[in-house]
Amino acid sequence: MGADARPQFRMTHGRQVEYGLGVYSGKLGMWVFLCSEVMFFTALIGAYIILRWGSSQAWPDPTKVLNISLTAFNTFLLICSSVSMVKAYAAVSHGDQRGLRLWLLATVAGGAAFVGVQVYEYLHLIHAGVLPSGFREGGEIMEALTRAGLPTGGHELFGAAFFTMTGFHGFHVSCGVLCMIWVTVKAFRGHYTQAHHEGIEVIGLYWHFVDLVWIILFTIVYLF
Amino acid sequence: MTASTPTAHGPAGHADHHAEPSFLRKYVFSTDHKVIAIQFLFYSLFFLLVGGALAMLIRWQLGFPGQPMPGAGVLGDDAAPGGVIAPKFYIGLVTMHATYMIFFAVMPLLVGTFANYLIPLKIGAPDMAFPRLNMWSFWLMIPAGVLALAGLVVEGGSAAAGWTAYAPLANSPDYTGVTGGQVLWCLSIAVFAASSLLGSVNYITTIINMRAPGMVWFRLPLSVWALFITAILAILAVPILAGAVIMLLFDQILHTHFYLPAVGGQPLLWQHLFWFFGHPEVYILILPAMGIVSEIIANGSRKPIFGYHTMVYAICGIAFLGWMVWGHHMFQSGMNPILGTSFMVSTVLIAVPTAIKVFNWMGTMWRGRLWLHTPMLNAIAFVAMFVIGGLSGIFMASTPVDMYIHDTYFIVAHIHYVLFGGSLFAIFAGIYFWFPKMFGRMMNERLGKLHFWTTFVAYNATFFPMHLLGIAGHMRRIYDPNAYQFLQPLQPLNTFISVSAFALFAAQLPFIVNFFWSLFRGRPAGMNPWRDNGLEWTVPSPPPHGNFAHTPRVLHGPYEFSHPDTVEDFLPQDQPLPARPGA
Amino acid sequence: MTTVEKKHPPYMLVWLWLAALTIIEVWAAQAGLTRRILIPILILLAVWKAALVAIYFMHLKFEPRRFLLVVLAPLPLAVILVVAVLQEWGK
Amino acid sequence: MRHWWFPESASSYAGDLDSLFYLILYITGAVFLVVEAGLLWFVIRYRRRPVAAAPGAAEPKAYYIEGSAAAEIIWTMIPAVLVVLVAVLSQGLWYHLKDGAPSNATPIGVMVKQFEWQFTMAGADGRLGTDDDITRKDHLTVQVDQAYQLELQSIDVIHSFFVPAFRLKQDAVPGMTTRAWFRATRIGEYEVACAELCGLGHYRMPARLVVLSAEDFTRWQAAEAPPPPPPGGGGGGSGQ
After folding, report:
1. Is the pLDDT of residue B68 over 60?
2. CATH C-level class of D106-224
């Protein structure tokens, strides 16, 4: 065999660890978790693609139902919070504690604002008669589409898919914000140092992944 | 990592720095992988018993349709008026039997108990990479199990759309007559998915990152290989089920229309998503069993496993192909015939790596010195029975033959030959084999062999005739076969199966007695009662918190049995091969 | 971290790219292009943005090559699922 | 014992399907025998026997071998060839079953709901949607040696149209029309069953399928045909 020489070992917490893929456990675990998240969103996005394009199913024009400019702004917010997250990571890896805390606060604010805007969007849509079970008869949206002579077919599936996909994304962002608050508190307590800041990187991966999913969702749900 | 590591001499010393943990921390909310494994063991054995009891009710109705079952009067007038099982209750039984067995018994046994127990011990790690997540993975199974059990007692009965919960049957109380039970089923599966996810993240990370020095990939025991690949399957397949079940749940409670055709929803979307999860799930249920059996066959034969590398590649091959075969559950659903052909080809190809494994096990036994201890008997039974399940699968893979046997008892026979004859015999083998390590005491061999032989005979008497039922066209999941004239002559066969099933259930009594008796009165096991090579046998039974006093150094593969240069017929992985006298 | 000081990519530049691509996306969606042209453009832009996030923000550029195996594993499965099921109704 | 095996075959392709089944049975049966006999032989031949010699003497060891590439190649190739053979032999019949309906097949409409079948049989004109259609609950009459094309639709949940004697099974999925075809080859009465769990009454969905000779069928058709609509009365035939 003679493969003895290959692996390299490092010490963590008194135990010898072989870094099989050259990545520490927290980061590896997070990536594995993200792989499963990819499959989860595959189920939801795949269902959307199949329901909408798998047959000659009618579908309302999303740009006529949803507020694109508002959501574009929201997308921008999420991208900004992703940037602030990497800036926080860059700061801590240079030993800049103040930078870390400020950028983390900015990230929390960005995420929270995204959720806030989404809640506003939901309330607005529900008020206008867009429900998970479809557009309410006589609701604002239904009236507007009919008045404009636009087709409303497939609105039941549209409502279901829209709320399920964006809802689960929103749920992920909300969980992310909660975790991020916790991380921020820890950062203010000086938990992360230039030598030890794996937590920042790991939570950052989750945060960017949620951003990445939103980039896909925004394109498919709002723009197609 | 320049972390301050005060104790560089291993986790045992590390643990000494802490005060003795409280009882609650040590045995209930424990983060020790061994305790969690044992929690999973009791949890899933409980569900195994409940699932088995439900099967007895099912078999009573099929063996003696319309006759009152002794003692069934206690189930109440909704379920069994006058002791006669009602149709709705019957379908609930069929649904919950499969749900309990698959999600709450066999899967937690294999990837809860054995994965948790074996992975760190076999790779020489002190614990899992994320012990706290590991604890959560067990404690999430509690609400999942409670939700699943609640189905039996809620108003309106348990879920009654089969464990496959085909839409649109599962969508609406109008179709099933079930109100809350179907929602509970969905919730339970969703929570189960979260638990499975946490477990799998742990297993993958642990196996990649926490192997002891020298434990290179091709020195990993086959059980660890199998569990690793299984965890990968789970991490990628279970979220699909979660997504599908959540959409089903929304259809039920938010009145969405994902699977309802009236406004364009797709009933077949459910089937595709379900089986895209469901077929990898089948391999999640069998690969760890194969791994366990590989360990025990090598040990019982006192020989290296035949073709170790091929065995590893076969596991990977099965897992890889397993992603491309889900459509073979849907040949008669109105699927595009071209798609059907491609699914048929990928399905029959899975027979190849599977055959390799079977023949390699036989090659391992060839010219061995078979030590027929109870685990070994169960492992050989696994091979013998799994072969039947594998071969009957070829009938279904052949699309035209499937047209006839689809949804008949042939399928029921097949799944039980794979899941009971396969997974469950392997689980019994594993329990008998690692019980000494888990509890420090041997299980009784005499009772073990009694359990094995009675189970083996009763099992075959129960499930083999089901092939005949299927060939005669007997549909599955029907409450009373006598509603069809062409099934009436099969009644004696059905009665025979039922009597055998009762015997099979009764045959588990020696196991239960043995288990609890040995827990307290079994012969002390010592460190390595089976004279095995795995790292888990180099530590005391049961192993202390942190497992290894010193991180072991792995010097060779796990199957160095009967090496010509050794004195004993085994060589633990941390022991060097003696220098050849002539060299 | 033990080894070399991590070299950080120009995050702000990536941010500008992402913002610009988002603006192009929204503009394209409302420019009244035919769907046959619009959809490929939108897919391209979305994949581009997603790739920027994954490569720079999630540091895939700096991970060991074989680690990419873990990251990319689910993608073929996602494609297989969606493409095969679309076949079902594509007859 | 006859009852514990295939029902007598009564459709044009049932014989082919049975032959394929038997072929697979012989192949898998041979593998089954080899494996089980081998396991049994190994258990008897190689079991550890008590050593008769002095207790201190070293026990003999098992034969140390880590594998054999040649053996493994053999038992990779044989199953591979066999299963590919099965797939190749299956696929012709598969297309015949699914897409092989003769062009002159008479259509039958099958509308299924919980828990009954409704069959719409074409009248003398051999077409559906005309005034002489015959619609019956849980009853289907066909002519021997005549091909029929089923168009299955479901009102509520998924059911599966199963005629054991014809070896025919096809799901009826709500929201879409699935198709199946058969040609009965024997006169007699057969049972239609539902093969997909469709609710509490799933077990009691038998329908009668009667195969008549050509003369009997014509007589039956004439007797069962609905009375012609009153002249000038709207002519509701949608298939005109």
Report:
1. yes
2. mainly beta
